[in-house]
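Appendix B. Chain record.
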Amino acid sequence: MTKLFKTITFLGSDKNAGKTTAFLYYLNHCDDISKLILTSIGINGESIDEYEKHSKPQIFLAKNQKFITKHQRLLNSQGQFKILNIFNQPKFKDTFVLAQTLIDSHYILEGPNDKKDILLIKNYLQSYYPNHHLLIDGSIDRQFLCDPKVSNEVYYSLLISERKVQRDKAKQFLLLHNFKKCNWSHKLFQSDYKTIFFDKEKSIIYKSKLNANFDTEMIHHIKKTSFLFLNCALSHNLLKQIKNIKLTIILENPSLLVSNLSNELIQNYNIQLLNKAYIKKVFIKEDKQGFLNEFSILNHYSFHNLFQEEHHAIRL
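C-alpha cells predicted for this chain:
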C-alpha cells in the first residue's frame, strides 16, 4: 500500500445498486486492512433496510480495524474497541469517534453527513495517519462527495434497471465525470468568487461573489464572454441565459451540475471541470437485461460486473 493518505468513496446510482457489496468486496480483497479507516455517510451496517424491509450486507470488522462512527453507535459495544480520537461538538455537527476494534465483530457505521465535517476529519487523518486510506461508504444524493477535495478516488456501482428515469440519471453521472479537465492555471480562479467571465484571451471581464442564478448584472457581460467559470450551481435558468452564446463553461467541480438537467441539454454545451473526480472503477449490476447497450459512455471507464464475473483482488 502506498504511503500517501487518500480518501476512497463508494457511490451507487440508486438504492440497491450494490454499493455496499462493492465496499465489502474492496475491503475483503485489500492487502493490508490495518491501513484502512472505514466510515459511512448516513447509516451502514444495519441488518434490515429500513425503507424496503429486506436484508442488507452487514459491516463485519476484523480485529485491529480502524473506523469512524457516531458515539451512540458504540454504546452496546463496550470492551470491543479502543478510542483513538473523538471529534466533538461544537466544531462538528455531532460527536464522532475514531476507534480500533479489539475483537472481530459487526458494527453499525454512521459517519459524518456534512462536507465540512468530512474535510475536518480528513485533515486530521492526513496529519496523524498519513499512510492510511479513508474508505467512505457514500450516498449518491450527497453530491459533495464527488468534490475532489473530499474524494481522491470514486468507485461507482451502476444499477441498470427497466426504469428510464433511473438509467438517465446514471448516464448523466457518468457523462458529467467524463467531461474534459480544464488545464488552466488555478491562479486564474479566485476561490471566493462564484462567477468569473473571461474573454477569448483569458482576461477577466467580470466577476461576482453572487450566485449566478441571482446575479442581475451578469447578463450585460455574457455576450463578450468566451469562458464562464462557475463556483455555483449550473441550473436550467442559467443555461437559458447563455442558450445562444458560444462559450465554454468551466465548473469548479462536478457536484455543481444540477441533477435534473437532461443529458441532451448538457451535451449542447462545452463543459469542462477545473477539479475533476477520479472514477477508479464502475461496478455493473443488471437488474434488467437488454439495457446495457445504452451505456456506451462506459467505454470511457474501467468497469466490470461484480455480480457475474470472477475478479482478481483490487489492489491499493
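Further analysis of this model is presented in Appendix C.
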